[in-house]
Specification:
By secondary structure, the protein is mainly alpha-helical. It has helices at 6-13, 17-25, 34-41, 43-57, 78-85, and strands at residues 67-70, 87-90.
Amino acid sequence: MVSYNSEMLNEYLKDDWILKLIKENENEYEKEIRTNKWLFEMDNKRIIYSDVYGDILKNDEENGKKRVLDIGGGGNYTVKDFSEKFRLYSL
């Protein structure tokens, strides 16, 4: 279990790569999806998301295409990035 604090958040915000990723993938018709709003508006959600999904999103595919099963992850801007890099199975 990880307990986040303001120091960890400030360090993450020096390179808020999740925000950069969602800005690259955003579009008008998806802005109202709650999980997209959370990621876009709440830096504390992005640091957690970075820890949970960072190793997958930053994968350079050196070992071929991965298969990812995401249970309960919900839909958001980054799912497009997942689906381009991996075979994504979402439940």
